[in-house]
Design goal:
Elements (H helix, E strand, L loop, with lengths): L1 H24 L2 H9 L5 E2 L2 E2 L9 H4 L2 H9 L18 H4 L2 H12 L23 H14 L1 H4 L22 H10 L15 H13 L11
Antiparallel strand pairs: 1-2
Length: 220
């Protein structure tokens, strides 16, 4: 009898924990962030660093400021970041309800990140050398990048990505930024709205796997 009660108690704890986890996953504002913002912004060490760390944005800014920053990103630009990086069409992309959900989610982020905030200078790809990630990155590359950079990243109408020459720099952070926001004055457009953070890193892992330059020139 005692064991049955113990097992029943443990089962109830697991059920409640699963329900709380599911409730968190069903937060529509959080899902909007994961789908549209995480590629550029990080929370608690997860996401990109093209834009500011938002781990504790709710402690620093009120809901109205957050809303305005989404709708007019150049109104106030965080120190250390450049204007005209964040897209200006979220008013068209989001319904009013979606905007409210995203603002509510961000407003409740008040705990400082355990990670270094801001644009980290030593961002590293977590998937470098990972065979499965490289294979997944190749699939994305062939779908989105090969028509300009060649099927083996050897170059075509756009630069060769297998050598040791990078126009804008070849560190993980710089390449990530290039994929996410593109490069003005070139054919490279940004993929912030079609690739999630992990997918960007996997594409970079694939590109690194095709490297043909000298080992002394590796900067990642």
């Amino acid at each position: 009898m005692g064991k049955k009660l113990l097992y029943a108690g443990l089962l109830m704890v697991l059920i409640l924990a699963a329900e709380r986890s599911q409730a968190a996953d069903e937060d529509p504002g959080k899902q909007l962030f994961l789908d549209t913002c995480q590629t550029c912004h990080r929370i608690n060490g997860t996401g990109g660093d093209v834009g500011p760390d938002l781990s504790s944005v709710g402690a620093r800014r009120d809901a109205e400021f957050i809303r305005q920053s989404i709708l007019d990103p150049n109104a106030v630009v965080t120190e250390g970041y450049k204007p005209d990086i964040m897209p200006k069409n979220f008013k068209e992309l989001f319904t009013e309800d979606q905007l409210n959900q995203l603002v509510t989610f961000l407003s409740h982020l008040k705990e400082p990140s355990k990670e270094t905030t801001g644009a980290s200078q030593d961002t590293k790809n977590p998937y470098t050398g990972n065979p499965q990630a490289i294979a997944e990155g190749q699939e994305i590359f062939l779908r989105l990048c090969a028509h300009c950079h060649g099927g083996n990243a050897e170059g075509g109408t756009c630069p060769d990505l297998t050598d040791d020459y990078w126009i804008f720099g070849g560190t993980d952070k710089v390449v990530y930024r290039t994929i996410v926001v593109g490069r003005k004055g070139t054919k490279m457009s940004g993929f912030w709205d079609s690739l999630k953070s992990d997918e960007v890193w996997k594409v970079i892992a694939y590109i690194r796997s095709k490297y043909k330059g000298g080992p002394e020139k590796i900067v990642w």
